[in-house]
């Protein structure tokens, strides 16, 4: 296993000036910067997503979904959930939200805001993604250690697949395998969704508590964000770890921008956004944007390349090493845009 070294921390993403084997200068990477901060309602948050055309940003919150209209900056709330974790825009003007405390998935009509369905799944539904055909949603039940498969045509659970507890984010590979991070086992679980059975896990030595996960279809590889300041690069075909790349502390998501050949990892403890290049045989760290402490997840507008990172201000650390309390009225969404 080869290990890539971390680049020095910078305020913005720097252009790579190293020469290629042919002696030509490498194409400069784009420069990113925080351009805006948009206030929103108080409360905790988890995953965020944009719709396909970048019109709205959705953030799963403690008791609702925060909706940001990108063009106007208007912020509204949608629905009622109990510790929201994932938000997934669906066809037909619908939104899927996982409600962790009560073990349900809620479907909302985005035009009216009305709840269309409440679907019982497993304990602590966390991440949720769509299959490549966008006909089924796959919900990772962290405490139950199962994956609930929801038929979006009927709004019902069509299958429950036993895996292991501590499931985090997931991604589909080119062969249809569902890959799921296991935060406690330090590995990536594999699921044969056609047969509805779990397969052999992929060990991640050197990666502690993987959470965020992205799939690079151009190179058939996975990028997992690890709590110990590493990004694990996994060969999806061979099902093995190929490299570890240094990142910041406290990541909870991997945001893929395959159109631009980049992966973004927001690291909430250090308050940085690590940027990895996917363009070569090796995944390389090409720079860091200073964001804010707490910015650990985010969403990408695939058309413009802009990123939206929810966060808040925090008080002093709690006694005994507990999480510091959020400062009332401080929740906001950072906007990070490419300058070129």
UniProtKB/TrEMBL annotation:
Official protein name in the record: Gluconolactonase
Lineage start: Bacteria, Pseudomonadati, Pseudomonadota, Alphaproteobacteria, Sphingomonadales
Cleavable signal peptide: 1-25
Keywords: Signal, WD repeat
Superkingdom: Bacteria
WD repeat start-end pairs: 93-118
Stored PROSITE patterns: WD_REPEATS_2 (PS50082)
């Amino acid at each position: 296993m080869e290990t890539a070294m971390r680049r020095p921390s910078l305020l913005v993403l720097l252009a790579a000036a190293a020469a290629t084997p042919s002696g030509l200068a490498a194409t400069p990477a784009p420069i990113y910067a925080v351009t805006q901060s948009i206030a929103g309602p108080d409360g905790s948050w988890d995953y965020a997503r944009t719709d396909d055309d970048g019109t709205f940003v959705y953030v799963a919150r403690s008791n609702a979904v925060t909706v940001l209209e990108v063009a106007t900056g208007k912020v509204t709330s949608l629905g009622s959930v109990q510790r929201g974790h994932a938000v997934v825009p669906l066809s037909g003007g619908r939104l899927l939200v996982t409600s962790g405390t009560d073990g349900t998935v809620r479907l909302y009509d985005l035009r009216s805001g009305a709840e269309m369905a409440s679907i019982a799944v497993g304990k602590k539904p966390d991440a949720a993604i769509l299959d490549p055909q966008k006909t089924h949603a796959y919900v990772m039940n962290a405490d139950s250690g199962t994956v609930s498969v929801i038929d979006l045509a009927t709004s019902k659970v069509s299958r429950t697949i036993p895996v292991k507890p501590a499931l985090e984010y997931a991604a589909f590979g080119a062969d249809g395998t569902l890959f799921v991070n296991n935060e406690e086992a330090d590995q990536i679980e594999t699921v044969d969704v056609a047969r509805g059975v779990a397969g052999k896990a992929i060990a991640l030595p050197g990666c502690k508590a993987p959470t965020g996960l992205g799939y690079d279809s151009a190179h058939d590889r996975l990028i997992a964000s690890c709590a110990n300041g590493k990004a694990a690069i996994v060969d999806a075909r061979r099902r093995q770890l190929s490299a570890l790349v240094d990142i910041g502390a406290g990541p909870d998501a991997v945001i893929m921008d395959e159109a631009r050949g980049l992966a973004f990892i927001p690291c909430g403890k250090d308050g940085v956004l690590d940027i990895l290049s996917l363009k070569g045989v090796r995944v390389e760290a090409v720079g860091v944007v200073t964001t804010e402490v707490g910015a650990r997840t985010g969403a990408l507008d695939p058309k413009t390349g802009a990123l939206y990172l929810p966060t808040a201000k925090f008080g002093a650390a709690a006694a005994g090493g507990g999480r510091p309390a959020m400062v009332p009225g401080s929740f906001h969404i950072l906007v990070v845009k490419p300058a070129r």
